[in-house]
Specification:
The protein is α+β, with helices and mostly antiparallel strands and about 350 residues long. Strands 5-4-6-7-1-8-13-12-11 form a nine-stranded mixed beta sheet, with helices on both faces. Helix 4 packs across helix 5 and helix 10 packs across helix 11. About 50% of the residues are buried.
């Protein structure tokens, strides 16, 4: 019989630069209002997004200049490497392990590309073994904090005794576009920030929580809801206006299906730990999962302090939920490109 997988550690980190929502709103007005006539109708999104500040890979002045693909990916490699080292080192320290005890690294990121991948570039610096298994994953977007966690937990479960390091890094702000005079670009400017998280998973005893189940649901004919378009300048946001109502209508049945495959129902879940993609999405998730208004209080506080950091954001929520005290059973949920819903259930360790 396979042993249960345990979450041994969880840490989060952000880049040093801070941009307040007021600064973001003022800079956006300065950069767009005279070129994009619809901007004044979109400007209230900065006030209504529920965000007070976010962290960024570069200072605000950098975003007021034109940048191409090379600039953006050089910034990504530099800052993502620093965040990888910081989170991986702290996650190992918290777990009481050293780098040479890690058997597998799962790294998710959808906001930059390096080849060789970050884990390979930093293996020597961090001290990973030569036989380390590396699983870099691109393209899962906001869902990757949960779906990547699920991948890492399944790898740990399938190889009893193996230790898996899961790292998620997103530098969403590097996709800011001066040349994109579109509603999705303005909304993205109001919502997204940068951050990273890492955790260690291992089959066996101890830890912060037991990973009980993991699953995904891919919705058909939904490729246009969220994603990137890629051109010479960099990534460009694809974000459908229909996302909150789609989530309110479709998320509940999708989560019910994922839970049913694990022999569970929503009634078995004491606390949903959700990716706060934006204030409207948070409200839609509460409605979709039959929660009372304002139930997702931790999600709102993370969104206010950091914005939507894409995949790491749900792990910021989980970190705070653990500090508060996990209930008997919790379910992490996120949605992302595909369009996909991902769910992982966690049990409290007595």
């Amino acid at each position: 019989m396979l042993q249960s997988v345990r979450l041994l550690s969880l840490v989060t980190a952000v880049p040093e630069h801070i941009i307040s929502q007021r600064q973001a709103a003022e800079a956006s007005a300065r950069l767009f209002a005279h070129r994009f006539k619809e901007f004044r109708h979109l400007a209230p999104v900065f006030e209504n997004a529920g965000i007070e500040k976010r962290h960024a890979a570069r200072p605000l002045s950098w975003f007021e200049e034109m940048h191409g693909w090379q600039d953006r990916m050089e910034a990504y490699e530099e800052v993502a490497s620093c965040l990888f080292v910081e989170t991986a080192t702290r996650a190992l320290d918290q777990a009481g392990l050293t780098a040479d005890q890690i058997d597998c690294i799962v790294t998710v990121s959808s906001t930059g590309i390096t080849t060789p991948s970050l884990d390979a570039r930093l293996a020597g610096l961090l001290g990973f073994r030569a036989d380390i298994e590396r699983v870099p994953v691109f393209g899962l977007g906001c869902a990757a904090g949960v779906s990547g966690f699920g991948i890492a937990s399944r790898l740990a479960r399938s190889r009893p005794g193996s230790v898996v390091l899961f790292v998620t890094i997103e530098l969403c702000t590097l996709a800011f576009r001066l040349d994109e005079l579109t509603k999705p670009n303005i909304i993205a400017t109001a919502l997204f920030g940068d951050g990273a998280a890492a955790c260690v998973l291992r089959s066996g005893e101890g830890g912060l929580a037991e990973v009980e189940s993991a699953g995904d649901h891919l919705f058909p004919d939904t490729l246009d809801i969220m994603g990137w378009k890629i051109d010479d300048t960099g990534f460009g946001i694809l974000l459908a206006q229909s996302l909150p109502p789609f989530a309110e209508k479709e998320l509940g049945p999708a989560i019910d299906g994922i839970l049913a495959r694990a022999g569970l129902t929503r009634d078995n879940i004491d606390r949903f730990i959700c990716h706060p993609g934006g204030m409207k999405v948070v409200v839609a998730m509460e409605s979709a999962l039959s929660m009372a208004p304002d139930t997702l209080d931790i999600e709102r506080s993370v969104l206010a302090e950091y914005g939507n950091m894409s995949s790491p954001t749900v792990l910021f929520v989980l970190e705070r939920a653990i500090r508060r005290g996990l209930p008997d059973r919790a379910a992490m949920i996120a949605m992302g490109p595909g369009f996909t819903a991902s769910c992982v259930t966690l049990r409290r360790i007595a």
